[in-house]
């Protein structure tokens, strides 16, 4: 199988491309959440989800992310 570090890097990069380059925010959120499944304290994913959830008015999801960042 694929090493967890490699999987994490690929998921994170995919999320970045979907977010920044393709503006496919729904899929970007899915990938950032998969990053958090592998690394629950991944700062990049937490910050990105904070921004995306705020921008999309997804308040319940935002509250979950904010609790993780405490």
Question: Which descriptors apply to this entry?
Answer:
single chain, 70 residues, mainly alpha, flat
Q: Would you kindly provide a written description of the structure presented here, covering whatever features stand out?
A:
- The protein contains four helices and no strands.
- By secondary structure, it is mostly helical.
- α3 packs antiparallel against α4.
- It is flat and about 35 Å long.
Uncertain spans, ≥5 residues at pLDDT below 50? none
N-to-C span: 34 Å
β-strand amount: under 5%
Mean pLDDT, to the nearest integer, reads 95
Strands, total number: 0
Q: What is the number of helical segments per DSSP (H or I, 4+ residues)?
A: 4
Largest sheet: none
Series of H and E elements: HHHH
What would you call the structural class? mainly alpha
Helix content: over 70%
Task: Give me the secondary-structure topology.
Layout: H1 4-21, H2 25-38, H3 43-55, H4 59-69
Quick structural overview:
This protein is an all-alpha fold. It has helices spanning 4-21, 25-38, 43-55, 59-69. α1 packs antiparallel against α2 (25-38) and α3 (43-55) packs antiparallel against α4.
